[in-house]
Amino acid sequence: MRHVLSALVQNVPGVLSHIAGMLASRGYNIDSLAVGETEDPKLSRMTFVVVGDSSVLEQVRKQLEKIVTVVRVDDISSQDYVERDLMLIKVSADAAVRGQVAQLVDVFRGRIVDVSPDALIIEISGTERKVEAFIDLMRPFGIIELARTGRIAMVRGDHSAE
């Protein structure tokens, strides 16, 4: 099972490497990891996606909570939440196929953010499934380069993850 964990951590140097090292040393694989400052500049939010049963999830949570710089860990996948993934993708697109690619970008509500004679850079955001579907549609055109943020997530409503 896929679990989305949100950890509030102190915004200090070394937190990311400490957490990633701890998880790796215990054999846990992180499918996705995104880190960014929160509304409080003293805190960052780390969003992890890990795969495993409930015992794996519980072990990961316990290990994270032992780290002094971790303020709080929440399994938000057990709540009603919104998640997004951001991707930049550079696709081969000469004049002959540029219109086709642009139509697909529109359908996926993406944006063309750079144009060169033989390629386009496209920005797409959405659920993992949407981003993956767009990648599949771009493969026949020729993907030159691809960069993704990893998933970020937030619990719906007027409360924070609990």
Q: What's this entry about, in short?
A:
The chain has 162 residues and is α+β, with helices and mostly antiparallel strands. Helices cover 28% and strands 42% of the residues.
Structure, explained:
By secondary structure, this protein is of the alpha+beta class. The chain has four helices and nine strands, in the order E-H-E-E-H-E-E-H-E-E-H-E-E. It has helices spanning 15-25, 54-66, 98-107, 128-138; strands at residues 2-10, 30-37, 43-51, 70-75, 81-92, 111-116, 119-126, 143-148, 152-155. The strands form two sheets. Strands 5, 6, 7, 8 and 9 form a five-stranded antiparallel sheet that branches. Strands 2-3-1-4 form a four-stranded antiparallel sheet, with helices on one face. The protein starts with a strand and ends in a 7-residue tail after the last strand. The model has no long low-confidence stretch (mean pLDDT 91).
- Average pLDDT number: 91
Oligomer: single chain
Q: What string gives the helices and strands in order?
A: EHEEHEEHEEHEE
Number of strands: 9
The rounded Rg comes to 18 Å
Q: Helix fraction?
A: 25-40%
Shape: elongated
Q: Structural class per helix/strand content?
A: alpha+beta
> How many H/I helical runs?
4
Which segments are poorly predicted (pLDDT under 50) over 5 or more consecutive residues? none
Percent range for β-strand residues: 35-45%
The N- to C-terminal Cα distance equals 20 Å
